[in-house]
């Protein structure tokens, strides 16, 4: 018997959408107000979905304490209250929310082994969300 568990977390971070491979005019036309030289911030909601068999003894897919601890330590501590442009993973990559979602997925996929990672969903605004499933 396989079940899914989704858990949501909140963090704030800033970024500027800008590509060194494009001219200032191309950056402006591509990213618009998100190309502001001073950057801008978001209150992100990240949702992590894991799956697995329901343990007969605990009745759970995985222990929420394990998932919460991992996400707080490996994701929220890394990205919370940061300028994403300053982080090594975005040195050569535009820190779009799509790319941030992929980075978070990779962190969880590499390090959380108590259940199978199904997907990561990242809400940037009430109107924008992005999802990555590997």
Task: List its traits.
134 residues; alpha+beta; Tetrahydropterin Synthase, Chain A; 3 helices; 29% helix
Give a brief outline of the structure.
It contains 3 helices and 5 strands, in the order βαβαβαββ.
Helix content: 25-40%
Strand content: 25-35%
- Strand order of the biggest β-sheet: 3-1-2-4-5
Question: How many strands appear in the DSSP assignment?
Answer: 5
The average pLDDT score comes to 97
CATH class: Alpha Beta
Shape by Cα distribution: elongated
Which structural category do the helix and sheet elements fall into? alpha+beta
CATH architecture: 2-Layer Sandwich
CATH homologous superfamily assignment = 6-pyruvoyl tetrahydropterin synthase/QueD
In CATH, the topology is named Tetrahydropterin Synthase, Chain A
End-to-end span in angstroms? 23 Å
């Amino acid at each position: 018997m396989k079940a899914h568990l989704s858990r949501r977390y909140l963090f704030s971070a800033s970024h500027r959408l800008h590509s060194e491979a494009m001219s200032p005019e191309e950056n402006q036309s591509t990213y618009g107000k998100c190309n502001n030289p001073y950057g801008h911030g978001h209150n992100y909601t990240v949702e992590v979905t894991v799956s697995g068999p329901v343990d007969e003894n605990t009745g759970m897919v995985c222990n929420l304490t394990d998932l919460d601890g991992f996400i707080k330590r490996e994701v929220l501590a890394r990205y919370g209250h940061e300028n994403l442009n300053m982080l090594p993973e975005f040195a050569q990559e535009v820190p779009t929310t799509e790319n941030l979602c992929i980075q978070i997925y990779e962190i969880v996929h590499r390090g959380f082994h108590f259940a199978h990672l199904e997907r990561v969903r990242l809400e940037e605004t009430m109107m924008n969300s992005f999802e990555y499933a590997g």
